Amino acid sequence: MTFKPDVIVVGAGLAGLVATHELVRAGRRVLVLDQENRANLGGQAFWSLGGLFFVDSPEQRRLGIKDSHGLALRDWLDSAGFDREDEDLWARRWAEAYVRFAATEKRQYLYDLGLRVTPIVGWAERGGGMAGGHGNSVPRFHLTWGTGPEVVRVFAEPVLDGERRGLVQFAFRHQVDELVIEDEVVTGVRGTVLVPSEQPRGVKSSREKAGEFEFRAKAVLVSSGGIGHNHELVRRNWPVERLGPVPRTMIPGVPAHVDGRMIGISETAGARVVNRDRMWHYTEGLHNWDPIWPDHAIRIIPGPSSLWFDATGARLPAPDFPGFDTNHTLKTILSTGYDYSWFVLTQTILEKEFILSGSEQNPDITGKSLRRTLASRAAKGAPGPVDAFKRHGVDFVVADDVPALVEGMNKLSRGPILDPAELTRQIVARDLEVGNPYSKDLQLMAVANARRFVGDRVARVVKPHRILDPAHGPLIAVRLNILTRKTLGGIQTDLDSRALRTDGTPLPGLYAAGEVAGFGGGGVHGYNALEGSFLGGCIFSGRAAGRAMAKE
């Protein structure tokens, strides 16, 4: 190999691209390795909805949202619940630094690269019902105009320009198996060259060996992602005491190459891995009727109006409402002894409150077509991708009355047979509360609170109505599965993204960024995420790594 890199980047996902962009800006030479082909440049971020966590943004202020650095930091720390003096030492420092970044230069940094966001700010992870507990006190979810592909583009383009100028070289289908250590310094990588692949983005590729490689550089960055599709690792690290029994059925919300291999490889080389039991998996997973990767799962990002029932047919208690407290709801669902639950809703709710996570599920915004977006959101009926899941998805039941709905639900059941009379009783009890603008039903209170925010009232949350009102029908039930997604723990790093050893000192030559490092410090989110913060964590930690390596 004639190309002599200053830095080797392992993983061409978002964090790796951000770091490479910063290195190219500094005139450094970078070799980027990835076990997938060029079609997968940008990795998992490409498939995302493109949500970004900003604090006190112009978009928030225009909508009358009063946010501040102090409020956001309190929300973050209350949600994170850092309680491990050693493992959370750097995670807390990263959290403080990241919230400061989100409240100051983050938006301008991305704006200067050409990224724009939509004017409506979303309210994700609304929380557990207490001011001092988990959740966002105000809407902070800023949707990228162009979704995940646009987030990838603004970093990929300058990196590809660096490739044209001879500063960047890619080695796709190169799978790292070992970090090279000399005199306790990481000096390179060894691994397997995989047979060429022409598979489209996201499609599972062969692991057939075609050769071997070894490359050297002054520094190595690991930015290879988490463990989301490696269910063996997910099960091994599952926190049973905190979240309940390991689900029997899990469906992956990430491609097959998200396997977590580099976490173990880095640990073998001397890096410290912390907070292995912290994960972020979703309770609203659907089997994709038109899959790209094996067992491809899609998440519903729901508004707050659907009624949520566990596998036994009991309505979930507060604060387990749609979109409020992911981990608490996960624990409640698993406490029944089953690994699935049900939404029951109306066509009216479906049309306004169902958003499917993923760039490919939102072609209007992904394509940056204002005309198509306005037409899609203003048209009668559900958005096209949502309607397609309703018609083709194996998790959907549509009926005109409760007995027929329950008959369909029981055909999909992986557990108890539901009683239509008991389900009717619970729905009627809720419907009787709709007759007044006030209620003792906490979920209806939450809906009323959401509709006080103009963004939710206009674009996200329907006016309360009776579920059994035929004018809002048909009735819809959705079987919800556990969808595996994010790794919240990982390689412990300092604020320069240097990988740390078990004694707390940097492992010379090794850096880590993105999900493989718990999005910074080995777990910047602690136990809970505030959403819109995963892409931001890749950007922030990748930027820190790139700038630090450029100086070194």
Compact overview of the structure:
It contains 19 helices and 22 strands. The chain has 552 residues and is of the alpha+beta class. The protein folds into 2 domains: 7-225 and 488-550, FAD/NAD(P)-binding domain (3-Layer(bba) Sandwich), CATH 3.50.50.60; 281-483, Succinate dehydrogenase/fumarate reductase flavoprotein, catalytic domain (Flavocytochrome C3, Chain A, domain 1).
Q: SSE layout and pairings?
A:
Elements: E1 7-10, H1 14-25, E2 30-34, E3 51-53, H2 58-62, H3 69-80, H4 89-103, H5 106-112, E4 117-122, E5 141-144, H6 147-164, E6 168-172, E7 174-182, E8 185-194, E9 209-216, E10 219-222, H7 231-237, H8 240-243, E11 250-252, H9 261-268, E12 273-274, E13 279-287, E14 297-302, E15 307-310, H10 326-334, E16 340-346, H11 347-353, E17 354-356, H12 363-366, H13 370-378, H14 384-392, E18 396-399, H15 402-412, H16 420-431, H17 442-450, H18 454-459, E19 475-487, E20 490-491, E21 498-500, E22 506-512, H19 534-551
Features:
2 domains, Flavocytochrome C3, Chain A, domain 1, alpha+beta, six-stranded mixed beta sheet, FAD/NAD(P)-binding domain, globular
Kindly report the CATH topology of the largest domain: FAD/NAD(P)-binding domain
Shape: globular
Number of strands: 22
Low-confidence stretches: none
Helical percentage: 25-40%
- Classify the beta-strand content into a percent band: 15-25%
Please state the CA-atom Rg, rounded to the nearest Å.
Answer: 23 Å
Calculate the mean pLDDT score and round it.
97
Number of helices: 19
Keywords: Flavoprotein, Oxidoreductase
GO molecular function: oxidoreductase activity, acting on the CH-CH group of donors
Protein name: FAD-dependent oxidoreductase 2 FAD-binding domain-containing protein
